[in-house]
Amino acid sequence: MKHLIKRWETGAETPAIDNAPEVDIHLKWVWGAYAQLDKSRQWGMSTAQPIQLSEIESYARMHRIDDDEELEQLITTVQYLDSAYLKRLAQRNK
Predict the structure, then answer these.
(1) Residue 61 pLDDT grade (very low, low, confident, very high; cuts 50, 70, 90)
(2) Which residues are within 8 A (CB) of 40 and not within 5 positions of it... i.e. 6 or more apart?
(3) Is the pLDDT of residue 1 over 60?
(4) Residue 81 and residue 72: Cα distance in Å, rounded?
(5) Among 19-28, 60-69, 71-80, 84-93, which is the least confidently predicted range?
(6) The whole model's pTM is what?
(7) Could you give the 3-state DSSP secondary structure of residue 47?
(8) Of 52, 29, 30, 54, which Cα lies nearest the Cα of 41?
(9) Helix (H, G, I), strand (E, B), or coil: what is residue 43?
(10) Cα–Cα nearest to 70, from 81, 83, 56, 85
């Protein structure tokens, strides 16, 4: 990522940055959570496994997310993002 940012700062073409989707401001915290939880992912049979619900719940405890609606949004969104990632990874590995 650092190399992309350096290219972008010098004015070089960076389609990965230029065409990146915008994340709604109210969902940036969930995107940050997903990025952190992705690092806790298990790997097996040479492929990524889904992020475990226990990892999401642990993240919520560590960040003191105790509002039921926020917790539900975190779980639902992380699982949705993870499912999309795993589907894309499977397509790429065919």
Answers:
(1) very high
(2) 51, 52, 55
(3) no
(4) 14
(5) 19-28
(6) 0.72
(7) strand
(8) 52
(9) strand
(10) 56
Range 38-44 contact pairs with CB under 8 angstroms and sequence separation of 24 or more? 38/82, 38/85
Beta carbons of 77 and 35 less than 8 angstroms apart: no
Query: Cβ atoms within 10 A of the Cβ of 17, count?
Result: 12
Structure tokens at 50: 């889904």
Angle (CA) 2-20-74 rounded to 5° is: 95
Q: How many CB atoms lie within 10 A of CB 31?
A: 14
- Structure-token match 């993002």, residue found: 81
Give the C-alpha separation, 90 to 94, whole Å.
Answer: 6
The SS3 assignment for 9 reads helix
Backbone angles phi, psi at 48, to 5 degrees: -70, 145
- Token reading at 77: 């969104």
Instruction: Please give the sequence-ordered ranges of beta strands (E in DSSP) within 1-94, or none if there are none.
Output: 43-44, 47-48
